[in-house]
């Protein structure tokens, strides 16, 4: 496989919500209740909701910034590459990176909409989640047909309402829903209860993938308060290691045999070890715990059938893919977060996948994502226009050079600052 | 390599302390303060110390028990295989399993002697730790020269006293000390402080390996209270994943460049992924965190040089050993815990290692352990008498059949119950 011929679909990027996203989408009675963005005197952008200011509007949205300036979190939309929040600029950034398709996780509302969980008026909270999803499906993913995989927010406080929402958005072509990697950690019933059954059933019925993103338990792993930030980064996979255990040992997959779960930004290199371990545990404990996973199957088989993995930059996972289900490995770009390989994703991908058979490369880079998320880009973008080479040619001249924060602020003013002053 | 020719040294087994261990080893003034074992009316054995009863004397000491009876923790010494607590029977069990050498972690005092941490009279606590170590070195490991690697307890509440103890036991030929995988979790200073420097310096000076065993942080990983026991087992490597991060990112190895740390019962299959990840983090964060690990080295290189891994039953770790330092991989039997491969360890080892070059097999099975722990069995046991084949021939007729708890209790009475009634 040549770099130019790759077709890249990223199952994990991040939407930085623009200030006008709720305009015209909220029922009249809740119009004044919708989150609104303010530009503070200290220069920070903030969303205001229910009296609280959410200043991490653009936390970690650092694509295009020199590495020396990372760690200084963006405080203002004006300091971001427009591709973070502007769909037209986003598509250009995707083109320049040779990326055909993208699924975008939410930002200021948190990974599974935690921001709406404490709203006392549940009807209001539901209306806002629906408005968010409509904006995401129609104005974000819908702006460029064939270029985006839509992703819906759940209503974490209400599994029945979420079930209804999952069915509603599925009608609009959305087949992915964000969820928490550990609802118990959010103060909600665990996956060992029946509480989530209506939602899981709606997902199974509509072929909607339950996406658990790193960090969606709202818990940050650590060892001691004086440990440096590198420790937190080193331990970040732990949350999804825990989620993987719950997915296997909880009854959810026995209740809903068609269900698919994605471990978003979960990596792949730890999975062969995990699979070996869970089988060892099952064989050693089953005689006395009497746990029966059903169908005479091993936990590794159940995991491999139902769980979608993804890969940013992970040589070990590719090397040991013989232990994984090649039909469930996908790729992600993580734009615009600091782990992203943008704008050199094709060069990274070819480094790890270049020596694989074309069929395996195609599965990992796009065919698996297309199948699991019911995403059909080629009906809109002819296949020969969808390759890295074709997309990059289309973006010739688009500026992808690194921009220090101050320079970006200067440049953004023309593009964006008028809208941000609201 | 043939199974018969393997030479097996296990760097992680478990000593179940016998009731007479403190006899004649405690200074007169603390004689009445030493832990003592009682046989309760409900049939349980318990250690009594400072008014508290420790009933998990033999937690998980299930070697030789049918799998159906696991989970029913032993409550009495009489229900254990005598090899758990009796050194003569232990050596026979090792022979029958083809195991030449063994390092034994403590049981009722917990992995790093947590039981003595709360003792108000610190002089008393020190005297008891010294008595424990003397017993372990002289009566346990010393009973069969050439067959055991001694391992000392620290005095976790006092790094200076531990330094002195490390030097004292090194004089007696003991070059391993147990430690916590996260001292901060025990309410003590973290590895990011200078507090442990005296102890770490003593270890570096004497070539003593700091052994962090799974569970030595006294924290049990989990996701929710209603998750089954399989989840806890699945997540047990997390503690050592955390310890690995602290070892790499803390200043301990820069301060003491000769220091060696063992991740006891840590496994190997997750390490290649971990190493890839920490290098990625270092390269991505260094421009703004300004962390400098020194010597122009990558975190993976530092880890691989200083950290000793061990292997029970781990195909993935062996398959990906090209990412590991072959000189720091060791083997463990985990007798008499439920994860142990006893009495079929050679059959497990040959399954995973049989296809490796003899030199690699020898390093993993015994030569690395000999080097790191300054253990020289062949001066006592000629090499041709040290193989699986030779040891098993020596144990011909030794009963290794599975024994239900009730049968074991019956059989033990002759051997042991008279001593246990104290």
Which chain pair has the greatest contact?
Answer: A-B, 65 and 65 residues
What best-fitting shape of chain A do the alpha-carbon axes yield? globular
Structural class, from helix and strand content of chain A? alpha/beta
- The residue fraction in helices of chain A comes out at 25-40%
Main β-sheet of chain A, in a few words? 5 strands, parallel
Strand order of the largest sheet of chain A: 7-8-9-10-11
> How large is the count of helical segments of chain A?
14
The oligomeric state of the chains shown is homodimer
What distance separates the N and C termini of chain A?
Answer: 49 Å
Tally of DSSP β-strands of chain A: 11
H/E element sequence of chain A: EEEEHEHEHEHEHHHEHHEHEHHHH
What is the beta-strand fraction of chain A?
Answer: 5-15%
Instruction: From the alpha carbons, calculate the radius of gyration of chain A and give it in angstroms.
Output: 21 Å
Unreliable stretches of chain A, pLDDT < 50, 5 or more residues? Answer: 416-422
Describe this structure in words.
The structure is a homodimer of 422-residue chains. Chain A is of the alpha/beta class. The first copy, chain A, has 14 helices and eleven strands. In chain A, the strands form three sheets. In chain A, strands 7-8-9-10-11 form a five-stranded parallel β-sheet. In chain A, helix 3 packs parallel to helix 4 and helix 6 crosses helix 9 (299-306). At the A-B interface, helix 5, helix 6, helix 8 and helix 10 of A face helix 5, helix 6, helix 8 and helix 10 of B.
């Amino acid at each position: 496989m040549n770099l130019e011929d790759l077709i890249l679909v990223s199952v994990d990027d991040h939407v930085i919500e623009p200030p006008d996203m709720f305009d015209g989408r909220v029922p009249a009675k809740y119009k004044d209740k919708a989150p609104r963005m303010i530009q503070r005197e200290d220069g920070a952008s903030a969303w205001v909701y229910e009296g609280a200011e959410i200043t991490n509007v653009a936390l970690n949205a650092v694509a295009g910034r020199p590495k020396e300036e990372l760690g200084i979190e963006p405080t203002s939309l004006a300091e971001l590459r427009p591709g973070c929040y502007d769909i037209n600029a986003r598509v250009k950034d995707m083109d320049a990176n040779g990326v055909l398709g993208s699924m975008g996780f939410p930002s200021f509302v948190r990974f599974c909409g935690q921001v709406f969980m404490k709203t006392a008026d549940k009807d209001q909270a539901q209306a806002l989640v629906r408005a968010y999803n409509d904006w995401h499906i129609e104005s974000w993913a819908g702006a460029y047909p064939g270029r985006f995989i839509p992703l819906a927010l759940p209503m974490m406080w209400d599994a029945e309402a979420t079930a209804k929402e999952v069915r509603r958005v599925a009608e609009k072509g959305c087949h992915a829903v964000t969820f928490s990697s550990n609802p118990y950690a959010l103060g909600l019933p665990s996956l060992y209860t029946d509480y989530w059954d209506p939602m899981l059933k709606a997902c199974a019925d509509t072929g909607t993938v339950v996406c658990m993103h790193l960090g969606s338990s709202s818990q940050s792993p650590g060892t001691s308060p004086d440990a440096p930030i590198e420790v937190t980064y080193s331990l970040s996979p732990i949350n999804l290691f825990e989620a993987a255990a719950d997915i296997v040992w909880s009854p959810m997959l026995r209740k809903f045999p068609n269900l698919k779960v994605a471990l978003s930004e979960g990596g792949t290199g730890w999975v062969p070890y995990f699979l070996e371990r869970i089988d060892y545990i099952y064989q050693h404990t089953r005689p006395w715990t009497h746990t029966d996973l059903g169908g005479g199957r091993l936990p590794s088989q159940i995991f491999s059938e139902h769980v979608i993995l993804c890969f940013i930059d992970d040589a070990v996972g590719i090397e040991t893919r013989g232990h994984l289900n090649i039909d469930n490995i996908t790729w992600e770009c993580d734009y615009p977060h600091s782990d992203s390989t943008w704008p050199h994703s094709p060069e990274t991908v070819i480094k790890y996948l270049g020596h694989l058979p074309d069929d395996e490369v195609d599965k990992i880079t796009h065919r698996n994502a297309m199948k699991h998320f019911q995403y059909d880009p080629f009906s809109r973008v002819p296949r020969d226009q969808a390759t890295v080479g074709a997309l990059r040619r289309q973006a010739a001249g688009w500026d992808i050079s690194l921009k220090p924060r101050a320079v970006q602020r200067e440049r953004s003013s023309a593009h964006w600052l008028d809208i941000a002053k609201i």
